[in-house]
Amino acid sequence: MSVTSTVLLAAAEHSDDENVLVPPVGELIIGIVSFGLLVAFFFWKVKPQIQTFYAARTERIEGGLARAEAAQAEAQALLEQYRAQLAEARAEASRIRDEAAVQGRQIVAELRAQADREVAEIRVRGEAQLAAERSQIVNSLRSELGGVALELATKIVGHELARPDEHVRLIDDFIAALDASGDATAAAPAGSGG
Questions:
Q1: In which family does this protein belong, per the annotation (predicted)?
Q2: What count of Cα atoms within 13 Å lies in the side-chain half-sphere of residue 23?
């Protein structure tokens, strides 16, 4: 016989005496006691450690969430503060730009007014200087013209006029006649041009 057939025969003889599905009572009691000790050990040592670990992890996660929410709230507050400062800086820059534009216009107006005053002063001085020079030239021309006219009159008459007061009167009459004829000539082109 072979080994397998011997094992099968021994199993068949043994199966008649006991059921394979039902364990022996001694093994069943040892198994139940061992399982009870294992469960008791689990609840006595392992469960508190698991609960402590779970509580620490929950606290870490909740603390991390709370810190993240606090950081987010702080970041949001900083963002709002930054936006407010940016808006304030923009408003300040706009105000400074507007003030600079107003000051620029004031400076330009003041410079124009000053330039106008200087032009008016220069014009007044020029006119006064022109009038003084004209008066000087007219006086100079009168004396020269009077001398020339007297000399001419002496040559025409053939003798020198005796009284100096007659010289002055003659010169003044001659110049007045020249002025009258000069004014009439100046008025004629001006009148014909308009």
A1: Belongs to the ATPase B chain family.
A2: 8
